[in-house]
Amino acid sequence: MTPALLEQVAGRVRPVALAGERLLPVLPPLRALLPEGGLRRGSVVAVSGSTSLALALVAAASVDGSWCAAVGVGRPPVGPRAAAELGVVLERFPLVAAAPGSARGGWAWAAAALLDAFDVVVAWPPPRLRPPQARRLAARGRERGSVLVVVGAERWPEAVDVRLGVVAASWEGVGDGHGRLLARRVEVVVTGRGAAARPRRAALWLPASGGDVAPARTPPLRGNCARTAE
User: Fold this and answer.
1) What is the DSSP string of 185-220?
2) Does the pTM of the predicted model rise above 0.85?
3) CA–CA dist 161, 153 (Å, integer)
4) Which residues contact 109 (CB under 8 A, 6 or more apart)?
5) Which of 147, 133, 149, 180 is nearest to 40 (CA)?
6) Cβ count near 222 (within 10 Å)
7) Which of 86-100, 107-121, 175-189 has the lowest mean pLDDT?
């Protein structure tokens, strides 16, 4: 997306959620993980180990009427179908494949432009993002009341308000070398500062068998293909 087109899209966005609302909603299985039960406007949230978790964080806000966007779109790229299955409203979730260069059309400029206009911006920072750039983006989000969700916490050189990490994962449905992958059970650990300083931990189906998110109250079936999260 060119700078001119990005400016045009941002100029047309009119967030439905009221700017005075301090919290943006999240899906019910994620509420207990966040210190305030939602995404606090002006905050920076970092996610590691799972693109699906980052997308799930914005699903309820998009359903509620908030405009959300993704910049960088990850490696591999974000699949619109996967985002929709997690509940993201695609009509209010443009994907911006911005280059990481320092030119006006680079990643940092695109992220700043989106923070000006969208309620939530899901961002894949480029390698070696400079601390001053990260600080400016965090300040832009605070000023505009936007939430910046950083995917790949190790690439963000500054402190964040909330950090969610998938520390282990296993797929259900594969046994004895055959079967179909039906659901993925993940262990999520949450840390941060302020109200998020006390660590939290939860098990989730991400995705559940229907493609959405659900609490994992039972262990994976015997014979599943298990692995540590990337």
Assistant:
1) EEEEEEEESGGG-S-EEEEEETT-TTSS-EE--SPP
2) no
3) 12
4) 3, 98, 103
5) 147
6) 6
7) 175-189
Greatest CA separation for the chain? 54
Pairing relationship of beta strands 162-175 and 178-192 according to DSSP bridges: antiparallel
Tokens of 92: 């209010």
| Beta partners for residue 47, in sequence order | 151, 164
Burial of residue 36 (CB within 10 Å: 0-12, 13-18, 19+) is: middle
Structure-token pair, residue 46 = 């970092």
Count Cβ atoms below 10 Å from residue 184 Cβ, excluding itself: 23
What whole-number distance in Å separates Cα of residue 80 and Cα of residue 26?
Answer: 19
What confidence score (pLDDT) does residue 103 get? 47
Residues 137 and 143: their CA atoms lie apart, in Å, by: 10
